[in-house]
């Protein structure tokens, strides 16, 4: 009986000692809530940063939420539901143009090209952009970066998107792919992995890349409110360093290795499809290899917005972009 009591007491003592230590270890990590505008293979470096422990190495505990759409992502950031937003830089311009007292600052770029592809319902061996004339084109949401980059590309090839084809852009982002698969449109603008899934299933065929056509721009960037940046300077620096580590890892590893690392974020997608999508993005330079958003990219972004008639006013690069953290972690 005494022996039994001694064993029980020993076990209890172990728990008493271990639990506070575990709690202490957990509390050492500083929580950062990220809101991503959508779940996409396009954001592979972000998932790598989480899965490879780069955030944890910096003492950060990441809580990732998918906020569907740029407007919802910005609302979550402005209302403090999230600390950092991963969304197109155009949203920070929209907020600034409305006269925000606490502007949203871009501090770490993740992707540097458009991430969409042109998918044709019919297989086309020798595609040319003129083939879109007179067709029904299922585009992206008006005012969003995918749609603006899409219109920019069409105009670049001499196509007026509002007069030379039947442009559909009033369908919610989540319903664009289902609408095409159910028979709407002859062409559609899609992100990965949906584009590759459609191709594998024979629903459509990838014929061109809007990322290649529209050039470098701050397509998806980590941003936060100016007040959060001032109050959490060290956290933003650690966050940026973790992203830079992930960017370097993605740049130096194969599409297969990257696909294996991020597959848990796309449980309903075959690893083979993920690998194909990653390879497409890597081969066209969509993943930024460092977190610096440069002035030339910022100008290209505003030119594309202006071309689409969606630029409320030009905002100086220095007003909404802070490269201090990115430059610091790269030294």
Automatic annotation (TrEMBL):
Keywords: Signal
Compartments, record wording: Periplasm
Transmembrane parts of this sequence: none
Pfam families for this protein: NMT1_2 (PF13379)
Signal peptide: none
Superkingdom of the source species: Bacteria
Name used for this protein in its record: ABC transporter substrate-binding protein
Naturally occurring in which organism (per UniProt): Bacillus mesophilum
């Amino acid at each position: 009986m005494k022996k039994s009591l001694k064993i029980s007491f020993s076990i209890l003592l172990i728990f008493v000692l271990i639990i506070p230590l575990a709690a202490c270890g957990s509390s050492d990590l500083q929580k950062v809530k990220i809101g991503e505008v959508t779940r996409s293979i396009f954001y592979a470096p972000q998932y790598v940063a989480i899965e490879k422990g780069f955030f944890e190495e910096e003492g950060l505990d990441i809580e990732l939420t998918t906020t569907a759409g740029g407007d919802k992502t910005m609302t979550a950031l402005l209302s403090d539901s999230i600390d950092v937003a991963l969304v197109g830089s155009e949203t920070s311009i929209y907020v600034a143009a409305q006269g925000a007292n606490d502007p949203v600052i871009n501090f770490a770029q993740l992707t540097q090209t458009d991430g969409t592809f042109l998918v044709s319902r019919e297989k086309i061996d020798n595609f040319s952009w003129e083939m879109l004339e007179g067709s029904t084109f299922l585009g992206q949401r008006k005012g969003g970066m995918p749609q603006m980059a899409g219109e920019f590309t069409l105009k670049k090839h001499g196509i007026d998107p509002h007069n030379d084809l039947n442009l559909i852009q009033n369908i919610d982002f989540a319903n664009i792919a289902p609408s095409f698969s159910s028979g709407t449109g002859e062409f559609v603008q899609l992100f990965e992995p949906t584009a590759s899934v459609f191709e594998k299933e024979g629903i459509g065929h990838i014929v061109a890349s809007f990322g290649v056509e529209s050039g470098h721009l701050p397509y998806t960037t980590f941003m936060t409110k100016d007040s959060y940046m001032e109050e959490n300077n060290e956290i933003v620096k650690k966050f940026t360093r973790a992203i830079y580590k992930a960017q370097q890892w993605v740049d130096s590893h194969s599409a297969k290795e990257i696909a294996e690392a991020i597959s848990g974020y796309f449980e309903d997608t075959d690893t083979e499809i993920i690998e194909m999508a990653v390879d497409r993005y890597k081969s066209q330079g969509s993943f930024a290899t460092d977190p610096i958003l440069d002035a030339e990219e910022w100008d290209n972004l505003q030119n594309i917005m202006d071309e689409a008639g969606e630029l409320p006013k030009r905002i100086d690069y220095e007003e909404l972009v802070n490269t201090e953290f990115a430059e610091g972690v790269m030294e």
